[in-house]
Amino acid sequence: MTALTADQIARVKATAPVLAEHGATITTHFYKRLFANHPELKHLFNQAHQQSGGQPQALARAVYAYAANIDNLGALTGAVAHITQKHASLNIRAEHYPIVGENLLAAISEVLGDAVDQPTLDAWAAAYGQLAGILIGAEQKLYDGAAWSGFRPFAVVRKEMESDEITSFYLKPSDGGKLRDFAPGQYVSVKRFVTEIGVVQPRQYSLSDAPNGQYLRISVKRERPIGLPAGHVSNGLHDGVEVGSIVEVSAPMGEFSLDRTKTTPVVLMSGGVGITPMVSMLASIVASGSARQVAFVHACRHGGVHAFKHWVNDIASKHPNVTRAVFYEAVRPEDRQGADFDFPGRMDWPQFVSQALLPDADYYICGPVAFMRGQMAALHAAGIHAERIHTEIFGAGMLE
């Protein structure tokens, strides 16, 4: 991989303000161009995020960050790790990068026109080649260490409702082969053909049980967004996948995972369907026989959408090292008859701070973006160092 010259670095960095202003326009044009020229690549991209604008905006932010830090790539280490894990889960390969590069550079030229000269385009071509080399190398290491290559057929051996919205699918390899260990908190991609848009679509779902060598479990929320082109795959799984069905599943990936080498406390904080990786982490700690202190903190709308409540209650009652704090935003009359929640309203730190601010604890957060931002702000305000805060975000959103 050839290093960029000082002139190329200067030219790319100088375009950062332009990308801040026109980035979303460029990336939206890029995706339209890419899919027009290469419709066979639609299966690699979430088309709902394309229609909502989430994916073009996310790419625009990533391109801007690369331009702004072209002379300090170390600042992008975390972002590169996140991107490469997602790419490996989707089975994006080295041969896809030249196609993407050609269309991205053409989109920059076509949108900016005379505002960008040929030497600057050449600098961006070199910069893209550098970035592609970094990503390809990192992704190859992930592929080399993956439990299997590409997508593998799994049979649904059990289907179980966890709440009014979330259903679990227990998956076993249809080839009869064994399963390797994975890191609690990781996810897999699942492919389904979506009739409404006529293309296979991938979706990533956190694994929601401890590694056991026998099956994988994903717990899928039925998406019913108002006015958004989402929910095709989740609804297809809920309504069209039954025991005996075969689904295509990628190897587990993701840098958001429980550090099982530690014995210090863990605080697991989730909102809504963000509970799924936390259940995997808690199940793994319990299955190992560890006495590690765990605070399980969860927020949801009400008892009808509270997944895994009986399981978590049972774990907390049997294991003195596990405590629970549950918030219901809108308590229903029937919710008051049980003991499944602790606090009404949204998650409020002063109400459970004594349970959650544990010495030397690691904090894992997953849920809606606004929820995660709120919890991160509260942790920072409480003096928790950034290296002890771990987050996972679903979809194309961004925390910063």
TrEMBL record:
Residues 149-259 form the FAD-binding FR-type domain. This is Flavohemoprotein. Is involved in NO detoxification in an aerobic process, termed nitric oxide dioxygenase (NOD) reaction that utilizes O(2) and NAD(P)H to convert NO to nitrate, which protects the bacterium from various noxious nitrogen compounds. Therefore, plays a central role in the inducible response to nitrosative stress. FAD binds at Y187, R203, Q204, Y205, S206. It is an enzyme of class 1 (oxidoreductase). It holds the Pfam family Globin. Keywords: Detoxification, FAD, Flavoprotein, Heme, Iron, Metal-binding, NAD, NADP, Oxidoreductase, Oxygen transport, Transport. Residues 148-400 are annotated as: Reductase. NADP(+) binds at G272, V273, G274, I275, T276, P277. Residues 3-140 form the Globin domain. Signal peptide: none annotated. Its EC number is 1.14.12.17. GO terms for molecular function: FAD binding; heme binding; metal ion binding; nitric oxide dioxygenase NAD(P)H activity; oxygen binding; oxygen carrier activity. The active site is at Y97, E139. CDD domains: FHb-globin, flavohem_like_fad_nad_binding. Consists of two distinct domains; an N-terminal heme-containing oxygen-binding domain and a C-terminal reductase domain with binding sites for FAD and NAD(P)H. Its cofactor is heme b; FAD. It comes from Caballeronia terrestris.
